[in-house]
Amino acid sequence: MKRFLALAAAAWLGGAAPSHAACGEDTGACSIEMGTYHARVPEGPIKGAILYLHGFGGSGEGALRPKDWVNTALDRGYVLIAPDGLPYAEGRGRGWSFIPGRPKLRDEPAFLQAVRDDAATRFGFAAERVILSGFSIGGSMTSYMACDVPDSFAAYAPVAGGFWRPHPTGCTGPVRLLHTHGWTDGTVPLEGRVLRGTDATDPEALVQGDIFYTLRMWREVNACNQLRADRYVTKGDFMRRAWDRCAEGSALEFALFPGGHVVPQGWAGMMLDWYEGL
Predict the structure, then answer these.
(1) What is the mean pLDDT of residues 41-66?
(2) What is the CATH number of the domain that holds 33?
């Protein structure tokens, strides 16, 4: 208990706090009514937070293990928050309850908003300065949050995950969103993939969505009426397209990299540069 209070006090004051699990002496889990999450706190002043959603079969604890993006975000002053998805009945880890046509086992928007607010209170950052991000199916959950409740987070940064079929017929907007995807991603291909069923026309099929269609939807939501990108930026492995002549307060970028189904090296720095430049 003393250790937790010391962490919380340091975070509230914007001073030094150890960058390790910040809740729970043993498990590192923070508990709220609808579930659990894990957190890491930067050593210096807190600039904001990233609420990051794990991929299929993962966990909040596991999501905060990769050193590349985690250390970059901590070094830049961001609290990292990683909620736990719901356990799959077949015992294959955890995931998120959002897929169209399937029963909603938890009100995920309400859960993620509750995690945001609880973490903001515990660690002393502004709830309106939180980026929602996620990888793979966590990226899909991020996309649905951006579509349904865009005002819940300051910006959205899905990686290797978008909508599923049937695609949404419309989204609330505008949004501030940076989508990152691997050119050779075979797990969540840019064009989508049939996971269960004979083909994409099978009404019983489970089918990932089309990332290019997703981007078209974001352009419509943000009123990017010129259609084509306004800026093309290639830096390192990232090839980026940005739409600037859009609705006031919106932001839309698409970043491709030459790899597959991974969070690419350098992603956190690129994403935070984008966010801080908004």
Answers:
(1) 95
(2) 3.40.50.1820
Residue 176, strand partner residues: 251
Between CA 95 and CA 97 the distance in angstroms is 7
Residue appearing with tokens 């928050």: 81
Instruction: Give the model's pLDDT for residue 22.
Output: 59
Q: Residue 98 burial (CB < 10 Å; 0-12/13-18/19+)?
A: buried
Q: What is the pLDDT of residue 28?
A: 75
The string of pLDDT tens digits covering residues 75-95 is 999 999 999 999 987 667 899
Contact between 139 and 161 under an 8 Å Cβ cutoff? The reply is yes
Number of domains observed in the structure of the chain:
1
Q: How many helices (H) and strands (E) does the chain have?
A: 7, 14
HSE-CB at 170 with a 13 A cutoff on CA atoms is 3
pLDDT of 14 reads 39
> Average pLDDT over the chain, rounded to whole?
89
Tokens standing for 228?
Answer: 């084509």
Which letter does DSSP use for residue 124 in this model?
Answer: T
Residues of the domain holding 114: 2-276
| Through-space distance between the first and last CA atoms of the chain, rounded to whole angstroms | 39
Q: What are phi and psi of 231, to 5 degrees?
A: -135, 145
Reading the block at residue 149, the tokens are 């409740």
Task: Output the six-digit token pair for 256.
Answer: 């491709």
Other beta carbons less than 10 A from residue 227's beta carbon: 9
Q: In the block, which residue shows the tokens 């579930």?
A: 35
d(CA 52, CA 63): 8
The mean pLDDT of 123-134, rounded to a whole number, is: 97
